[in-house]
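Archive entry: two folds, one per protein. Generate the first.
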Amino acid sequence: MFDQPGQRRSHKLPTPRGGGIGIIAAALPTVPACLAYVQPSWTLHITVTLLVATVLVALIGWWDDHSSLPVLPRFGVQVLAVAFFSVALLIHGQGWFWLPLLVLAGAWSINLHNFMDGIDGLLAQQGIFVACGLAVLAWCVGQVALAGASACVAAACLGFWCYNRPPARIFMGDVGSGSVGLLIFALSAMLWRVDERLLWPALILSSAFVTDASLTLLNRMLRGRRWYTAHREHLYQWIVRRGCTHAAGSAWYVGWNLLVAAPLTAMAFKRPGMGLVACIVTYAIAAIVWLLAKRRLIRRDRYKVRYVHT
């Protein structure tokens, strides 16, 4: 099963895909084990529903990797998985009016991580950063089980990154990207259940991917493009299209995470009353950087890459 090069792809050589199954193989036994057996443990229904939701998303992703599925069945399974977990999370917690927002957030997290899996090492390194950040946040509030589960996700992503770093020997595929998106959503939502103020630092950790994926989708919709089809209009794709290597493109996101997201996450955690403000400021800066960088990349004619409309 190989990913072939193409006009809307960023790689130049046929590369095996579906390697994200390794992340699933590592996360499925370790994440539930941490949640169930490390104190303070999480309830059985939350642990089991997270396990089932991850399996559902991984299976539909694996199927799509092998034979391309229509959008609606794939999205339907993703929504079902997220809803299943979200209901379990809300049974003894926040009100049911949060359910639609959780389902929307979870489905978007699955798909945006799929969209952002387009160059070597990018998604794996983002998974490492966000999961490590969630682990630190959980540890600081005494949620050792949740910290351990997050660390297991980070370790699984690190193991895969060793094979996916530029030049990639294998691609993650939908089986991995969708599952990573679900796990990051689930761990963030569990932090929110512990303390609603932890939502803001958790969102800041994911600001690079959320901003790029969301603004790219919005831009395509406003321009009347077929936003649901494959394309090469994300910021990281434009960086590569303008002559940078995959390693350089990934380095842009590392720089954002270390220089902006990490300090603002720390501030939002240490000063809970300023968490919302810090989150808004982070995403405002990210949007400005995205707009300026993309405008400059599109206007540059040094490498004369044709702009493909889809």
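Generate the second and append.
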Amino acid sequence: MPYFAIAPDANPANLINVETWTKLPPHILPDRAIPLTGKVRRRALSGAARHDGHIDGALTFDLLARADFNAFVNAVFGGFTTPSQRISLTLIDELGYYSPFLGYIEKASFQIAPGGLLRDIVFPLANLTLHSVTKTSAATLTAADRLVYGDTSGGSFTLTLPAASAIQARTVLSVSKIGAAGTLTVERAGADTLNGGTSLALTADGERVDLVSDGVGAWRRV
């Protein structure tokens, strides 16, 4: 099940699964995965290259009913007279993870198909920035913390998830460990379950979990 989400008010705490408005999910092919570096390529005299600037991408649907398309545009843009809107959204990045970005979505291009359908719908995305926060000690996460890096170079600690009921169902919160030393423990809140248990331990540098809430009392790994 896909977990693409959008917050029309650009607040990650208010992410809503896209399928709330559409019966079909977006289609993200490998060549449409969101890059993690900017599109402006520069090369130093040493020969080393870097990519600066904002990230661009696209939110693509293969097929949508006209009614679903209208519902999506009205929810995200507030109507058809708005050419672009600043949003928060969760998309698949070039590493294959569901990652949160802030940026702009623009009105779509599409083709009309028979039977009240639209096909090849492409919403351009511009000026995207990866939205993350870094923790260096024990903390309780909030609904706005959608990508959390836990830096354990100073020692092991625990991050407590927000209550699953405080997060919109079928939206993702990710935790990644930074540093070779120590253990980063991800723990449930209250009586919630976390992947059927109470906690997860991240021990390897760069290890990451994408977790999805059921909106009631459970988290599970994507």
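Annotation attached to the second fold: Helices lie at 66-77. The longest strand covers residues 117-130.
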